[in-house]
UniProtKB/TrEMBL annotation:
Name the UniProt record assigns to this protein: RHOMBOID-like protein
Classification of source organism: Eukaryota, Viridiplantae, Streptophyta, Embryophyta, Tracheophyta
UniProt-listed InterPro entries: Peptidase_S54_rhomboid-like (IPR002610), Peptidase_S54_rhomboid_dom (IPR022764), Rhomboid-like_sf (IPR035952)
Main location: membrane
Localization of this protein: Membrane
UniProt domain Peptidase S54 rhomboid: residue ranges: 110-248
Highest taxon, organism lineage: Eukaryota
Transmembrane feature ranges: 37-59, 148-168, 180-201, 207-225, 232-249, 280-298
An example molecular function term from Gene Ontology annotations: serine-type endopeptidase activity
Pfam families registered for this protein in UniProt: Rhomboid (PF01694)
Record's GO cellular component terms: Golgi apparatus; membrane
Alphabetized UniProt keyword annotations: Hydrolase, Membrane, Protease, Serine protease, Transmembrane, Transmembrane helix
Organism annotation: Brassica carinata (Ethiopian mustard)
Length: 315
């Protein structure tokens, strides 16, 4: 006969079997810290504006030395207009007009490219320096946080919006306008909409909002100075404001991208990427932005204008 299997010692002693050991605890899961984008587009725009300005001064139609022209001989031809003609230390109006300055009459005659070319020209060295300092202060931070594609689109579309608004408010068709201020005000408007649409992830919300509103108000007040095209500032600001709701959304606090979750790891109470109000802002702003550009461009083609503002040269 076969032997009986041995009785476990714990049964013989009357003690229950030990429970199985629990599985080893999983290490705590922490999503990776976002890596800032490398900002290269804003410095490229910065350099392009200076190169364009140097080219403008190289081909500038400068009077003779007997007319008190300030000459800076670089390659023998880099020249500035007299101070009494251009206090910003820049070229003449005919030179700017020839190189692509914004002028409603020429736009209506078919030169639509001036709506974009004018944002790369500047009325003088002082005008250029003021705009480029603003570009570095605002644009570098935005590009590091949102990338070059969105900031590049924001810059160009805001500049286009400022150009359309400038043309629509020039009933006489005599204004010659240049400058990147419309695009820069678009970046300011995008900062404001970015703060509003990403409200839940900010600390010191009211302080940030009041500070930004104060900065925007101070910059808009510059538009009331003589020979400043404030309509381009307002048009660029509105375009950038609505475009910011479309392009500058951030994930809500606590959201974890599924590609960063380890296999088999169950994240409880997983949050959606964006809140409902962010989607409402996005689609509403996109509809307003498209309607504004379509209506404005249509009015420009049909030679309908709104009430004009005093004659100005730069923006």
């Amino acid at each position: 006969m076969g032997k009986r299997p041995p009785i476990p010692p714990d049964i013989e002693n009357g003690t229950p079997p030990l429970p199985p050991l629990p599985p080893p605890a999983r290490p705590p899961f922490r999503p990776p810290i976002p890596v800032p984008w490398y900002a290269w587009l804003v410095p490229l725009i910065f350099a392009a504006n200076f190169i364009t300005f140097a080219t403008t001064m190289y081909v500038n139609d400068c009077p003779s030395r007997s007319d008190n022209c300030l000459l800076f001989d670089v390659l023998g031809r880099l020249s500035f207009q007299p101070i009494k003609e251009n206090m910003l230390l820049g070229p003449s109006i005919p030179t700017l007009r020839r190189l692509g300055a914004l002028e409603r009459r020429l736009v209506e005659e078919g030169e639509k490219w001036r709506l974009i070319s004018c944002i790369w020209l500047h009325g003088g060295l002082l005008h250029l320096l003021a705009n480029m300092i603003s570009l570095l202060c605002i644009g570098m931070r935005l590009e590091q946080e949102f990338g070059f594609l969105r900031i590049g689109a924001l810059y160009v579309i805001s500049g286009l919006g400022g150009s359309i608004m400038s043309c629509l408010t020039d009933s006489r068709g005599e204004r010659v306008s240049v400058g990147a201020s419309g695009a820069l005000f678009g970046l300011l408007g995008a900062l404001l909409s970015e703060l509003i649409t990403n409200w839940t992830i900010y600390e010191n919300k009211c302080t940030s909002l009041m500070t930004l509103i104060l900065i925007i108000a101070l910059n808009l007040s510059v538009g009331f100075l003589p020979r400043v095209d404030n309509s381009a500032h307002c048009g660029g600001f509105l375009a950038g404001f609505f475009l910011g709701f479309v392009l500058l959304l951030r994930p809500q606090y606590g959201y974890v991208n599924p590609k960063y979750i380890p296999p088999g790891y169950d994240v409880k109470h997983r949050k959606s990427r964006h809140k409902c109000y962010q989607h409402v802002f996005r689609f509403t702003s996109l509809a307003i932005l498209l309607a504004g550009f379509i209506v404005g461009y249509t009015k420009l083609l049909r030679e309908h204008t709104v009430e004009s503002v005093p004659f100005r040269d730069v923006n």
